[in-house]
Amino acid sequence: xxxxxVALEKCTGCRHCFDVxxxxxxxxxxxxEFPKVADxxxxxxxxxFRAEKSVAENGSACILCNACLYECEGSCITIWDDEGNTYxxxxx
Length: 92
Ligand code: SF4
Ligand code: SF4
Hints:
The protein is α+β, with helices and mostly antiparallel strands. The protein has one domain (3-88): Alpha-Beta Plaits (2-Layer Sandwich), CATH 3.30.70.20. 15% of the residues lie in helices and 23% in strands. The protein is globular. It binds iron/sulfur cluster (2 copies). Residues 6, 11-17, 54, 71-74, 76-77 line the site of one iron/sulfur cluster.
């Protein structure tokens, strides 16, 4: 089964994944729901952390279109396909 995960410490809450995903894999949550997650300093040096974080709640619906991987500014999305191959965000 295809699965999708977001590394929350790197997620800036930019909403790009939420906006581009054609099958609504991602759900935005208030930052306050993750008090134990520390924002990644390397990502913070490049991008502004917003008031939300993205959770891949419907990963099994992913059709591997790759749109989120191109748009994720935190480079924090990983996707596993049926054969166990992994795909990472490539945004720089
Ligand atoms: S690769 Fe999957 S999770 Fe990412 S935008 Fe496409 S369908 Fe959505
Ligand atoms: S595109 Fe990446 S950094 Fe932006 S909200 Fe989605 S998971 Fe977070």
